[in-house]
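Re-running the complex after MR caught last week's input typo. The corrected sequence lines follow. Everything else is unchanged.
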Amino acid sequence: MRAWTAPDLPTLDGSGGRLRVHDTALDELVDVEPDNNEARFYVCGITPYDATHLGHANTYVAYDLMYRALADCGHRVVYTQNVTDVDDPLLERAEQTGVDWEELAEDQVSLFRDDMTALRVLPPQHYVGAVEAIPSVVELIESLRLTGAIYQVDDPDYPDWYFEVRRAPGFGRLAKLSDSEALAIFGERGGDPERRGKKDPLDCLVWRMARPGEPSWESRLGRGRPGWHIECTAIALQHLGAAFDVQGGGSDLVFPHHEMCAAEGAMATRQPFAKAYVHSGMVGLHGEKMSKSRGNLVLVSRLRASGADPMAIRLGLLARHYRTDWEWTADSLREAQRRLDRWRDAVARPSAPPAEPLVAALRTALRTDLDAPAALSAMDAWADAPGNDPDAAASAAQAIDALLGVRL
Ligand code: ZN
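Corrected-run output:
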């Protein structure tokens, strides 16, 4: 699938150094230490049935900071993202609105691309749809079958294929939930603990046999379509290989999604799926998590259409640390716009304080678990300080562009 247009990524003088990020599995900061200097990361993409809201934007801007920090450390970056362009929520929405599911997906992916481009988010090198990944999904299920961890439920109509999660090395280490918590969350987030015929209620669907009226594809497993977790596992393994550096996504993906992907990947390769699991916080509105089901979405496209500067939207997101849960308010955008104006005035000065200490402070902030608020404070201080370096303004603007993705 085509990604979106890449913004310019300026290269700053001096590189090296190391990014540290918070690993959910260990609950501590860990060094990202890419093999052969190639940083490989995967971020779960959208299910394209509703336009990009600020929760999505917050997630993709957070991993965009990670991309920029890794590149600035001197690593080659390989970034893969999926699009879940066939799954229950998409099909349900298409049915409810009387739209063809493929058209709905295409329109929403197109809108997502425009939003990402406007927000100056670096595109993944591999942008892969579930539908186009079906051959790799089937291949992965076939290889998991050889381990004996794949079975069909005893259902004469729909003998769907499942993965025995508890057989995987390390299952449960990511989310660290009790059985009852795991079951409850699994049921709330797309799982089917009640499905009859499963060996364990937590076993996850990998291949759903064709139902009347649903899209399906021919395969050695029978006609059907992929489950959600195996889709990401297959795409990540195909484009990044085993033991890649970071698996990322919103914190609502820790369980079951990332736990299941980690289990499938570890079972298939006998290596860790990812070396670290990084999760961004949830953005709320009026006291509730922003979500499609609650109908309280602030859409990036709508903000843009109402005249908001995409760089102000981006700064509004960067004002909060990526791991915190926070609330978007109308003030978030107003404050961000004021900051953007102040920074633009500061880089338009004929002379300013030297840029080197600012660049060093930005780097330190980002390399310490992508601390964007600390980076913003450093730039605020630079913008307020007097100075007489005639080249500093251009250097500062370039650093803000390269490291924070904000074009002044
Ligand atoms: Zn995923």
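None of the earlier attempt is carried over here. The mean pLDDT is 96. Residues 44, 82, 232, 257 surround zinc ion (CB under 6 Å).
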